[in-house]
Amino acid sequence: xxxxxxxxxxxxxxxxxxxxxxxxxxxxxxxxxxxxxxxxxxxxxxxxxxxxxxxxxxxxxxxxxxxxxxxxxxxxxxxxxxxxxxxxxxxxxxxxxxxxxxxxxxxxxxxxxxxxxxxxxxxxxxxxxxxxxxxxxxxxxxxxxxxxxxxxxxxxxxxxxxxxxxxxxxxxxxxxxxxxxxxxxxxxxxxxxxxxxxxxxxxxxxxxxxxxxxxxxxxxxxxxxxxxxxxxxxxxxxxxxxxxxxxxxxxxxxxxxxxxxxxxxxxxxxxxxxxxxxxxxxxxxxxxxxxxxxxxxxxxxxxxxxxxxxxxxxxxxxxxxxxxxxxxxxxxxxxxxxxxxxxxxxxxxxxxxxxxxxxxxxxxxxxxxxxxxxxxxxxxxxxxxxxxxxxxxxxxxxxxxxxxxxxxxxxxxxxxxxxxxxxxxxxxxxxxxxxxxxxxxxxxxxxxxxxxxxxxxxxxxxxxxxxxxxxxxxxxxxxxxxxxxxxxxxxxxxxxxxxxxxxxxxxxxxxxxxxxxxxxxxxxxxx
Length: 527
Hints:
Elements: E1 25-28, E2 32-41, E3 47-52, E4 55-57, E5 62-68, E6 71-80, E7 89-96, E8 99-110, E9 114-117, E10 122-125, E11 130-137, E12 143-148, E13 151-152, E14 160-167, E15 170-177, E16 188-194, E17 202-217, E18 221-223, E19 228-229, E20 234-240, E21 244-249, E22 252-253, E23 259-261, E24 266-270, E25 274-275, E26 282-289, E27 296-313, E28 319-320, E29 323-334, E30 338-345, E31 348-351, E32 356-361, E33 366-376, E34 382-394, E35 397-402, E36 406-408, E37 410-414, E38 422-426, H1 431-444, H2 473-480, H3 486-496, H4 500-512, E39 516-517, E40 523-524
Parallel strand pairs: 1-8, 10-17, 18-27, 28-37
Antiparallel strand pairs: 2-6, 3-4, 3-7, 5-6, 7-8, 9-11, 11-15, 12-13, 12-16, 14-15, 16-17, 17-20, 19-25, 20-24, 21-22, 21-26, 23-24, 26-27, 27-29, 29-33, 30-31, 30-34, 32-33, 34-35, 34-36, 37-38, 39-40
């Protein structure tokens, strides 16, 4: 039986009888081999001599000499073991006169193998080629093996390839994963180096591979505003093991989100249950990576909102012409909706979007469109509606939102022979009554020119003048230039239905022949 640091003893008596226990010494290359001890009995005192392979070892290498009553001994310390000492025989010789007793011990030196470099854990994407490297050193090193989850990998197989390069006592082994797949992740890749002669002398180390897949689903999703949605806004991705993920909104991580596994390699991260409002609409980024790794995948998607619309007016009752009028249409949605305006008078519906100006508010996810009349006349009366539309579809059909109609009623005054004025009512609600009143007014005004003309900035044909001979050219020109006496201005208004300011704007527009902006937010287009 071999034993490190064995005791070697011999018993010497006057009568020839020798007992030696134990024998054998084992050590690793480069390590202290141990101590050999030789004990003898006899009288007179015997001499003890150590030999290595029949060569006498001088006392200078002995560690200790001691004696006890009728018992004598001498120890031998064997220092750093080298492979050249493997099999060396150390002998203790006990001599008393002509009597000699010997006991021997054999030193066994096993090679010492070390790992110069261990395989390192890596992160890769599906389809990558991955190399794991292991480097070992030892004089008797003759084998390096790779295992995957304790299964031996053959040098050439379907998924792996192993190549070894030896220079001197150093061997470098490379395990190549030919094409990284999700199943290659979350397993142990172990490199083991040693000698075939001494299989118990081995060194090993392991690494792992984390596989980042792809974002399999992260799409634009539209919701109705003001509802409590049960349909999640989710990002689905693959990895092995489960990777870290987050949702970002305006480059800031969304709180309250967690990654959940839906299968062996499938995971998802979702927004919490949502109350749909304009503040959460926008562009989101799904970001997936492993901790402390620069490798990542990301994708963007929109949380969209179907359009909704409200229409408000600065007036709530009939207004007298001319009076200012302001209609405001607020359309919520993402992507930001476009606004179209319509005016209905009787059975006629006209697109009046050209009269509006729109402002896009990206932070509030709304479009605000406004129609403004500085001076509203009869022709501006009617039911106004605005329609918000976007590129979104529901069930394959374009979707839009239409406001409730806002009725605008405009009243004007007609001149008569009496000092009393008779009001004329125009609007969707009073159209029929207005016609009857107009008939009565015409009968009263048969001997006077009572025809009035509304000034409409969007109607290019409305700039005709009536009975220009009724006043002198000089007086009419003065009024159109913004000058003239009060009597001339009143006469001009009675003939044309326009105030002196309106006339000045019309004539100036006709002279320039292009679009210009009036003192109000309304744009006018003239021929």
